[in-house]
Task: structure prediction
Amino acid sequence: MFSCQDSDDLTAETVIENLAAAIDASTVSRFNVGRSHIWDSTSRAIKRKNFTPESSIYVKFMDDIGNQEGAIDLGGPRREFLQLLMEHLSSYSSLFFGPKHSRHVNYLSSGMYLLNNSTFPHCGTLE
Result:
């Protein structure tokens, strides 16, 4: 996992490089996700016993009745998944508050709810 000892000189590029270096490309965590249920699908994948946050992510999109879409994950489905997930978390969850283009982490108002339903831990797992 990523750790930082001196955050004064920390840049976004350094954080991304350190996170990328921690990924074990020889293992894969599979995500079968539905676009209309992005958080539920993600949460279910993270709760699996074989999920490890250091693994690469392989994404397959499913329709609402469970049929797989034909796309092979060479990066595109993974990017779309992460984009949809971040969009959902910033727009529809209570993790953030404020205007749409200037949202902030919501530490207080529903913190106990978020901790109790595993939202914070699951989001942190995806760093």
Summary: The radius of gyration is 16 Å. The mean pLDDT is 76. Residues 30 and 76 are 15 Å apart (CA to CA). The chain has five helices and four strands.
